[in-house]
Amino acid sequence: MAVCFLAYSNGANDNFKGVGSLFGSRTCGYRTAISWATFATLAGSVAALFLAQTLLKKFSGKGLVPDALIASPQFVLAVAFGAGATVILATLLGFPISTTHGLTGALVGAGLVAASGGINFAVLGKAFVMPLFLSPLLAVATGGAIYVAFRFARLRLGLTKEMCVCAGVEQLVLPLPQPNGVFAAQTLPTISVAVDNPLACTQRYAGSVLGMNAGRLLDSLHFLSAGAVSFARGLNDTPKIAALLLVASALDIRWGLGAVAIAIAVGGLLNARRVAETMSHKITGMNAGQGFAANLSTALLVTTASVHGLPVSTTHVSVGSLLGMGIVTGQTKWKPVLGVLASWIITLPCAALLSGAAYWLVRLF
Questions:
Q1: How far is it, in rounded angstroms, from Cα 295 to Cα 29?
Q2: Do both 8 and 120 map to the same domain?
Q3: Euclidean distance between CA atoms 175 and 25, whole angstroms
Q4: Which residue range(s) make up the domain with 177?
Q5: 251 and 104 in one domain?
Q6: What dihedral do alpha carbons 259, 260, 266, 267 form, nearest 10°?
Q7: Pair (137, 174) in one structural domain
Q8: How much is the mean pLDDT over the chain?
């Protein structure tokens, strides 16, 4: 139950990250985006059983904490609770944080309370901390580079942008003077033309590529890239959480992976709205093409990390890709971004504190 709570928290905080650009660029609505994210993430969770065995072993905690703790149900319970409570708290506050960071902090916190001095900090730095710090920096560079490459290709192909202008007839009430010296209201039809706030307008691409409408082709590729990010997230995160179930010898790990996959899907469907607003509207402005570039960058980096067994954070990569694209376009919203970065710094010590307290209470009672 504790591991499923962690999986639910993970889904609530992470599921929307792959499709945030779909919602942020108004390519589709919230419901369509979260439904597509849930389907693709679930597919990635199922694939994790066959493609991510390295991560399954790594996040059992082996090598980071003493082997005796890995086989302790009390230790696993404390880690699952500490990480899950940290992630759900951030979700309720609207901060997209890393479940990987939460798990790492929980392993360390419970490990310090259970066996002071038993944490292998060399393993912590090499296998966990370095990939977690490097992944957002690499994502910023990759996201910016991919957007620049696509923009260059668009200009060479002669594709232009279209913006909406609203025109229509509205009724204008005017006070007209009367012969007796008083004023009477009279309604007159007038033609109005308005250019809305750029964020409220839908920016489209005009022209064709290989005989296909550029806008519709881009939307299709955007949906595919969002699905790829969600699939990669399920592939990368499911084994991290299910690894905590390796201690339950009476439970086949395949059933554990299935339970984790379902809990992740339910968490995203029921509790992703606040994080969705942050990912879609508070990091950077974007159109469909820019969102597609950021998604493609995230999908490439997270999938590569999963295949090589690197515990990168999908959150860090996704936010980093959006940030890289936003820096290039000059649309980055730095105040909310700094708040997100601060939440990343707090995640690890918060999870360590909660899991350490949980382990102490479990042993006490």
A1: 17
A2: yes
A3: 43
A4: 162-199
A5: yes
A6: 150
A7: no
A8: 82
Examine the domain organization and report whether 182 and 53 are in the same domain: no
- Asked whether the predicted pLDDT for residue 194 surpasses 90, the reply is no
Provide the token pair at 296. Answer: 């493609």
Domain assignment of residue 204, yes or no:
no
Number of domains in the chain: 2
The tokens 């900090």 sit on which residue? 121
Question: For the segment 176-193, what is each residue's pLDDT rounded down to a tens digit?
Answer: 677 776 666 666 666 666
Query: What pLDDT, on a 0 to 100 scale, did the predictor assign at position 221?
Result: 87
